[in-house]
Predict the structure.
Amino acid sequence: MVRIQRRVSRKRYLGSKQVYEYERMSLDIPRKFHSKVKPFLKQDLNMDLSIKGSYLVITLTPAKTFRHAEYAPLKSAPERLQTLEF
């Protein structure tokens, strides 16, 4: 069983005269699902939320980014390169 957690953050500004307030919601993932979630750590995910009957369905899919890959493919091996003679 999981429970959606709500937290209100308050940030003071202008010499503590004014307060900026915002709400955060989080969802703890139970231990039995950690092995399924680990491959998606440190990835940007798109979230889709829908309500079907009395169910809340949260769908997370990897976001397509245009950043370079962390592990870029290796360059061609030297034996595959052609040598040109002049």
